Amino acid sequence: MTMAKTTKKTTQKTSKNSVKAKPESQSSDVSASVKQILDNVRPTPMIHNGLTNEEKIERITEKFTDIMNTLGLDLNDDSLRETPKRVAKMYVNEVFGGLDPKKFPKMTVIENKMNYDQMIVVQNIGCLSFCEHHFLPIDGFATVAYIPNKKVIGLSKINRIVQYFSRRPQVQERLTKQIADCLQYILGTEHIAVHINAKHYCVMMRGIEDTSSTTSTSDLRGHFKSRMETREEFLEHCRTKY
Q1: Is 203 exposed, middle or buried (0-12, 13-18, 19+ CB in 10 A)?
Q2: Is 134 annotated as catalytic?
Q3: Is 131 a catalytic residue?
């Protein structure tokens, strides 16, 4: 009987962990290919509440109305009357659109028939996100590079991957890793590098109120991590602005 109890507990624990490991792609409307991609990206902490986007907008409108009333703002004023709904639509449809797997961008890759084996770099990608601790903007630039194996990705798709994972409440460290995870899976190469340099408005507008500092994060994989000359070449691209 003791052995049976142990087996039961282990099975339950494994099942629970497997659900936690794949929180990004649990919508029936998401394609199988997008589910596979997101299941191979480290997750953002989320719960699946089953609400439609319209229901989310309705609830956030109600809650933000409460916030504005609590702050003592006059919602009868014609400038403020529609603010709760504007904020709700902005959260669901725009700045936090990256929480919706149905909005994951269409990916286009081609066979590496040209046998290109050098670094491909996309610099100065606009990276606008929200700090998950204070819901204030993170504003910066990403530089992304990879060394192809059998696939080459359309250049604009790298920008779209950065934008998708940016459009959710974030910490910069997780954002950097998610972009790298996504590209490594799609391209089938371990030689991936991601660097982000950004200003955090939670640092600028509150607390220390430092308006000049920036934060840099990097995720270097494969040759970008193990080969000094490859690492230096990539970091030089990160320092160069056009």
Answers
A1: buried
A2: yes
A3: yes
